[in-house]
Structures are given as structure tokens and as C-alpha cells.
Amino acid sequence: MAEGQFLFSKELDVAVRVVHLACALCQRVQNSLLSSNGSQVNSKDDDSLVTVADYSVQAVVSRILSEYFGSQNLSIVAEEDAQTLSKSDLLQEVVNTVNESISEAPKFGLKISNVPVGPSQVIEAIGRCSSSGGPKGRHWVLDPVDGTLGFVRGNQYAVALALIEEGRVVLGVLGCPNYPVKKGLVNHHHQLTSEISSASPDMWDKGCVMYAKRGAGKAWMQPLIHGELKLDSFESARSIRVSSVKDPALATLCEPVEKANTSHSFTEGVAHSAGLRKKPLRVYSMVKYAAIARGDAEIYMRFARAGYKEKIWDHAAGVLIVQEAGGVVTDAGGRPLDFSRGIYLEGLDRGIMACSGAVLHEKIIGAVDSSWECSLL
Ligand SMILES: Nc1ncnc2c1ncn2[C@@H]1O[C@H](COP(=O)(O)O)[C@@H](OP(=O)(O)O)[C@H]1O
Ligand SMILES: [Mg+2]
């Protein structure tokens, strides 16, 4: 048996279970939010949104990782900030949501003390996630709700948890509660199937959790569990693989929905010059990486405005899953993304591109270079 097989086994097991638990939490909050006119949403100082789900997932993940791996030397890099929550009118609802989620942890095979927590413990759990990562040691990286805008709009979002060791991503887990395992991202009419999937007796119609371990050469997908089912083993996991399409004319490009987060006009020019013919799929969150890893799309491009610094929690889990599923992820200069330099992807050359294989990747890199000179980016 390969020596690396057992490396990070416990970490992966806990991370997958905790992401399942977090997805269940998010689904409840998203349902209640959509029926209550957004009373569970605040704006942050940078005008982005934060919800009860963002804070609650961060608190639950922090408590469970501390329980399993000890709080002493635990380093967690995550998006939400305890001080902002302590002043927010969402605090009580967050406390209730955290307690509700922790009480169902056994269903996900997680053991954690079920004594209800109060506001100060929730704030402490969130505050524990203020590590800034770096090149040495082990760091968990969490985006509790990636694509918060998609989340509040009843659309796609993801829960993303990764483990970085000595500056390299070694585990990636991505929960995609509105990405049905069976139906995929688009229907027969090429329309996004992003609305919340309706109740169905078939578990493969539900959202999914994907995961990968560095060096395994494989990535996996499981359906979310619902109702009285328990997550006892990982038998329901199937391996996923990137698409084998090499012809740009047949390739699908994924990109952010928000024009503030990428230059749609630049990527349109690149796509045209590389010979892409299909309409791009605009999708919120790291579900774009999931779509590449599953073979539902071939290319993900992201060109943020000059001066914006990409954060590691928006990429770590997705990048590893795409790579282990057979894809290639680099910056626009063809270099690997550097997760070793703190909370930002420092030194990123222009933009990010994830492709299903080397042939398309090379064509896209070439098209970026030829389009760059004429662009105003
Ligand atoms: N100006 C900007 N350019 C690029 N990305 C941005 C941005 N402002 C915010 N983001 C990031 O884009 C993420 C959403 O990605 P996408 O556009 O692919 O759906 C946000 O994650 P959160 O929703 O977790 O805050 C946020 O971190
Ligand atoms: Mg994010």
C-alpha cells in the first residue's frame, strides 16, 4: 500500500464530515432567508454581504476542528471577523443556528460536546480563525459561504475548506448545496439549474460535496445527505474527472456572474481569439472549480480589476480538486498559484485560469497574451 495513502486521513475524514454538516446548516438558512425577506443579512464595511450562515458555519467549523485537533496549535484562516459579529444584530440568530447545527453533528459522524454555547463562545470560535497562514506549518483555510451574493439570491454558493501544509494545499473539500450530482449545472436547454433543487427521493438529485487529497490523482464527489439518513461511511463517493474535450469550439467557459469580480469583456476577447464558440456560463462562487473538476465545463477564467488581491480561501479547495481530477490551474503567466504567502495570492500574474487539460490551457494562455496588449486592464 502506498505510504501516502494514510497521510491526512483523519483530517480529510473530519473535513468532509464538517463540510456536509455546514451544507445542511446553509440549506436551512437559505430556505428561511428566501422566505423572510433578508432579515438575516448584513452589509460589511466593504459593502459585501454577510449572513447568519457565514458566521454560523465559521463558528461550527472552528469548534469542530478544535475538538478534533486541539485548539492550542490550531491555525485557521477564514473570512469572517469576530468583532463585526459582536456588534451585529445577527448575533443571537447565529448562536441559535450554531447550537442547532452542533446538535446534529452525530448524524454526520462527528463527536462534539452538545452543551449549548452562548454568544461569547461563538465569538471566540470565530475569533480563533484569524490566522494569516504563511509558508510554515499547517493552516486550515475556510470560506464559510463563498458566493454570498449567490446564496442570498437563492442561487449557487459553496462551503470551502482546505488544508495547507508547508505552503502547499494538501486537502480540498468543496460543498456545493445547489449543484445536483445527477443533473449537473445546465439543463438540456443550456439553462443554469441553479435554483434550489426540489425535494426528491433520489439522493443523487441533491447537492454535492467534492474532495481531493494532494498526490492522489483522483477527486471524489458525494451526494449531500437528507432526512434521517446518516453519513456513516464514504461508500457513496464516486470519483470525478475533468472533461476530455480538447477542441476550443466545443469547450465551455465559466466565469463570475458579477462584472465587478472579473472583466467579462476581456475574457470575451480571449475566448474569441482562442476559438471558443459557446456562450459562457456565469456562475457564483467556487462552484466554477467544481464544474471543471466534474467535467461540466472546460475553462474557468477570472481577471479581477488591477489592484484587487485574490484571497486564498476563494481558491485553495477548488484548485486542488481540479488538479487532482486531472486539470491544470495557473495564473495568466502559466505559474502555479502561491498559497504560501499569507491570506492573499501574492505575485499573481494578471488573472487565474483553470482548464480541464494542458492543450486548452496552452491555447488560453496564448490567447491571453495576444489580447492583453490591446486591453485596458
Ligand atoms: N473586486 C473583486 N474582484 C474579484 N473578486 C472579488 C472582488 N470582490 C470580492 N471578490 C471575491 O469574489 C468572491 C465571489 O466569487 P465569484 O464572483 O466567483 O462568485 C467573493 O467571495 P465571497 O462571496 O465569499 O465574499 C469575494 O471574495
Ligand atoms: Mg469567497
UniProtKB/TrEMBL annotation:
EC numbers on record: 3.1.3.7
Annotated positions binding Mg(2+): 79, 143, 146, 314
Catalysed reactions listed for this entry: adenosine 3',5'-bisphosphate + H2O = AMP + phosphate; 3'-phosphoadenylyl sulfate + H2O = adenosine 5'-phosphosulfate + phosphate
Entry annotated with the keyword Magnesium: yes
Keywords from the named record: Hydrolase, Magnesium, Metal-binding
Coiled coil start-end: none
InterPro entries: DPNP (IPR006239), Inositol_monoP_metal-BS (IPR020583), Inositol_monoP_superfamily (IPR051090), Inositol_monophosphatase-like (IPR000760), Inositol_monophosphatase_CS (IPR020550)
UniProt-recorded Gene Ontology molecular function terms: 3'(2'),5'-bisphosphate nucleotidase activity; metal ion binding
PROSITE patterns the UniProt entry points to: IMP_1 (PS00629), IMP_2 (PS00630)
Gene3D superfamilies: 3.40.190.80, Fructose-1,6-Bisphosphatase, subunit A, domain 1 (3.30.540.10)
Gene Ontology biological-process entries: inositol phosphate metabolic process; phosphatidylinositol phosphate biosynthetic process; sulfate assimilation
Role according to the record: Converts adenosine 3'-phosphate 5'-phosphosulfate (PAPS) to adenosine 5'-phosphosulfate (APS) and 3'(2')-phosphoadenosine 5'-phosphate (PAP) to AMP.
Family statement drawn from the similarity comment of this UniProt entry: Belongs to the inositol monophosphatase superfamily.
Name the UniProt record assigns to this protein: 3'(2'),5'-bisphosphate nucleotidase
